[in-house]
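Appendix B. One record, verbatim.
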Amino acid sequence: MAKSSRKHIAVIGGGWAGCAAAVQLTKQGHQVSLFEASRTLGGRARAVEVNGLKVDNGQHILLGAYQQSLQIMREVGIDMERSCLRLPLQMIYPSHEDGMQFIAPKSGFIPAPLHLMIALWQSKGLEKADKLALARFSSTARWMGWKLYQDCSVSELLQRFDQTERLCRLMWNPLCVAALNTPPERASAQVFLNVLRDSLGAKRAASDMLIPQLNLSALFPEQAAVFIQSKGSKLSLGQAVTGVSQHASMPGKWQLNLSKQETSDEHAYYDGIIIATDCSNAKRLLKSANSDTVLPEFEFEAITTCYLKYAADIRLPGAMYALCDAPQQEKWGQYVFDRGYLHIEHAGLLAVVISAPQNPNSIEHDKIASAIANQLAESFQLPALKLPLWHQIITEKRATFSCTPALTRPTNTTDQAGLLLAGDYTAGDYPATIEAAVRSGISAAKRLQ
């Protein structure tokens, strides 16, 4: 890029959207200054330290369909085959539960969607009526092009497609909650279909499940920072941006108000700004810029992850299981991950995920952990799981927006030239996921070509 066309862009927020924007801008040849208020990169998908172990603020799964996320991670030097445990699409319940076992074949020689049909007919725990209902759903959704004339709830969609109660309980509802973090009776059917289109409805590898073996900060944000700094861009951690404004004497230029005084005036003005914070902070920064852009009043959903540590020789039969949750019986766990399969230092560490929790936010952590430990012991028929050595519960109270039908989401652009938005809440096909954040960051950066 010619020096005269090189721009200096400020990216506010070091989550996945901000880091993706910074990498894309750097690839375009621009100078970037990335500001993050905390000392850890990653935003709502970041590393935390618990009892001397580096874990995540919430257990995540990536999909093979996350093309832009996987591509940009490779571009900054992440070896995806060594950084994630790749599993074929599966929905497996503990053998002692009244669940199901659905596992796509591993062979790459079986093309989509045939691999899913094979998994369906080989599945256990589903009756013939359940299997026929699932096959009917898949074929009809493909015929429709995965598009609805009018959005509705996932529950209504499943009813229209005559899905059986057992199939909804064991497969569709858990998939909906895991993907959209919104209960099926309130979740957008169109967004759910978008996710299914790009995973179940695409090439075989798109349906693979990738469980990070690195912590979420190391999986991309930290390496993104290394990448941009190697190209001469700047990272400022622990530096909150309190306001943005147009430069008083330089039309088209922008200034930042910072919580800490910069040591030099090198970054006194910018050719553009990407606000890659959460929605509430984006509103605050837009107001400081005298922007008339209005962001929706989103409702939010929490995600709780309960870490339970046992002796190192305690192992589950596999790396990941779905669980039959029953909140009314204090069985809150929906998925459990044996992190010993991911990292040798995590042997004996289980992570139990509760998406869009119905009760736990108002219950004492010790009681939640005890109830989940009892649930695991019963599900796997392993009495030792009742007594973890320690536990840690992490709740992101505003983990995602509620992905409801026909939800209006803002675009990357604002009413002011050079001021853009990035984040998983912006307009796109996906719910609030890592892929949505990355797509938004890349899209905002490309608008500053």
